[in-house]
Amino acid sequence: MLIKHNVKYATLGLAMLGAATSASASDADNFPSKPIQFLVAAGAGGGTDNFARVVRPMFEEAIGGARITVVNLPAASGALAHQRAATSEADGHTLDFASTTLVTSLAAGQNPVGLDQLTPVARMQSDVMALFVNPERFPDFDSFVKYAEENPGKVTVGGTHTASPDHVAFLSLRDASGLDINFIPYDSTGNATANVLGGNIDATTTSLSPLLSYIEAGQMMPILVFSDERLEDYPDVPTTVENDWDLTDGNDRAIFVHADTPAPIMKRLEDAFKDVYNSEEYQSYAERVNLDYREGWMGSDEYRQRLENNYELYSRLLQND
Length: 321
Fold this sequence. Notes:
alpha/beta; five-stranded mixed sheet; 11 strands; Bug_dom1; BUG; signal; Tripartite tricarboxylate transporter substrate binding protein
């Protein structure tokens, strides 16, 4: 069933997520009863793929030694992975590893799999978004704002493709700040960054972790972070909340299953991923790749509500773009 591109339908569909089919506790006790598939809604080597492959051996142990295979399905911004998970058996053996792109592409009408067909098991990562510049061009956010106000309609901000987390971060910033700035989509974070360094665009919106090497080299610098509080590693960089803008969404990475997965199996999955998240091994990984700036964990119910709110926001921003 296709999700219609309107907020009312999305809200109703999301409310159906709790309507999982009934199952006894013994079903969860016997889970898993066959091999498990991790469908990755992204290509090999990216953040979501690395996340799934790092988690796999930890999850295998937490769930009781099940055999797990990882399958990359990057086509159509991951829509193929979402479709396969939504049409699989509702038994918890097919898991969809996805980023914020799942809900941004849904809001843009690019993803035919609605939130009434997939339900989140949990969110485990929330990479902080930021506005990045060449520090030789703009030493701080105030200088960027001044330039944008003096040159309305001429400032360009790059990021990955339309309806990506980079794009909706830009739209959120433009909407909150009232700045007259424009977005240019690129096929990768690397290309957007290269165009900032080459002076072809003025800035880029993306998450922190992909640009750490550029930051360490002094080539790129965040001048605004989408966060409640200043980050320990960047104490001089202001936040969106300091500017009275309620913009703190990151690029999330989460796990989804068929919406009709029985509640006892859902709980078994959520508990297993929580054990993985709390493990010393996972926390060491998160710290190593700088995904510990803020709490990543969000359980199924809480994350479901966040997805609903984000869908409404992203739909409005993309429709008005």
